[in-house]
Amino acid sequence: MKARYWSLAIILILVNYLIFAALFSWLVDSDFGGKHSTRTPAPTFTPAPAQPPAIIIPTPTPVPPVPTPTATRVLAPANASTQPENASPDSAAAQPDIEPQLVAPGTVNIRSGPGTNYQVIGALNANAPVQVTGRNQDASWWQIEINNGAIGWVASSVVSASNTESIPAVEAPPPPVAAAPAAVAVQPAADAPPAAPEKPKYQFEPTGWYDDGNAGLTRFLGDIKDVNGNPVNGVFVQAKCGNFSAISFPSGPVGWGPFQEGGDWPAGFYDLTVDTKPVPCIWTLTVVDTDDRQTIKAVLSESVPVEITAEKSIVTANWRKNW
Hints:
The protein is mainly β. The protein is built from two helices and 16 strands. Among the domains are: about 60 residues, SH3 type barrels, CATH 2.30.30; about 120 residues, Immunoglobulin-like, CATH 2.60.40. The chain has a five-stranded antiparallel β-sheet with strand order 6-5-4-1-7, with no helix packed on it. Strands 10, 11, 13, 14 and 15 form a five-stranded antiparallel β-sheet that branches.
């Protein structure tokens, strides 16, 4: 059966082929009445003559940029006032200058001149600010104004002065004339020893004081030397404010305690940092003797007041050993 079907299929395919071939030949040979479609040629483009533009746009001329003014700093002349132009006289008057003044931690003598050989004319009360009007040449005495315009003098070593940078040196009054003692002819013995010089009251005395800017500390430091300028080691300095007291390590490379604090200090140098911030107060500094940095065995100098402020909290205080 299958061979028969295949033979029939082949015969049908051949018949179809002959029919389509005859139909294709007839279509090719037929002219359809002699009318063939002809392609219409496209017109040729002829460019129109160039015409001038209706609107002429001028070429813009570049405009150079206008330079931007740069602010120039103008230095005021040396004699020009630093007060703003719109500041009123009332606002200037509202900012008074800080007057130079001093204050004493205790009652101190007021003398008629810069020296202990002048007469005592009064006393300065403790913690009472007084205006400073002058100084002697080395600023070891301050001139102050007391009642009724009178002038007096106090020693700078027993008071604390502030804002005194512009205080001028003034002429001191003539020293008092001491009455000449009656001349007495005394024939010294041939073997009598020379008179010994008067011994100072304290074993140590201050030799130089000045403060420095704030570095976030309340600190006291300085050098301790003998009368010949040689460094002195093993000396303690006490700083006191009210009931609070602190004592330094011994001066020089002596060292203190199990960690030998201060063991690397230079000879004769001491350093006492009381706090890591300024502690404003009228402090007093004293050379003392101690075994434990707590209990004072002996006071070896006078107590000298120094002022600590928020702006100036580091003080250099030097001392001299007299014997």
